[in-house]
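ARCHIVE CARD
SHELF: 3
SLOT: left
DATA:
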Amino acid sequence: MSIYTLPYPALEILKILSKHGSLTAKEIQEYLGEDVEPKAIKYALRRLLENKVIYRVPNLLDMRSVYYRTATREELSELVNDLSPEITEQILQAMQQGNNNFMQT
C-alpha cells in the first residue's frame, strides 16, 4: 500500500508524538484540544498505523489501552519506496519539528 495523502490531523499527531514520546489516544486528544473530533484522531491514527509511520505499544500497567509511538529512522527508511516524495518530506518535517534531535540521532 502506498500513501499519497495523510488525513487531518496526522501531521500534528506526528509532531506531538515526536516531542512527547509514546502517548495514548486520550493523551493525544488532550494535546490537540477540543477543536479536533475524536473520530478524526482515530482515523488519522489508523492511517498512520496502516502505513507503519507509527506503532502500537502495549500499556503494561493498563492492558485496556495502548500507547502510540513514532517509527524510528530505521523503520522509516524501509518505507521510503511506499511513500510519495511529498508525504515523505511532510512526515520528516513534522517529526523534526516535534523533536529537534530527530535528524541528528
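SLOT: right
DATA:
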Amino acid sequence: MPERDFLDKMIDKRAARNPEFPRLLDAARRRRELLRALAGQREEQKRSQTAIAAAMETSQSFVARLETTAADAKVSTVDRYAESLGFVVQYHLIPTAEADSAPPVVVHAA
C-alpha cells in the first residue's frame, strides 16, 4: 500500500469533522471529470479557448478557469460550454450503491 501523503491526511481530518466530506469530495471529482472531458473535446476539435469563449459570449480567461479550477460551475455554464462544442449534457440518476462502478462521464462520439 502506498504511503499516505498530506492530501490523504487532510481528507481524513476533514472527514472526521464533517462525515459528509467524502461524499462532497466525490461529487467534486465527478464535476471535474465532466469539465476535463469537455476540455478534451475542445482540444480534439482543435478549437481554442478564445473560440469557445466567443461562442459562449464570455472571456477566454473564464473558459480557462472553467477547464482548470472551476470547483462548482453552474449547470447552465456547463450546458453552454457543451453546446458550444456541439454536445448536450444529459443527466442520469444512478443508485448510490452503484456509483463507484459507473463511469462519471460518458461521451458519445459524433
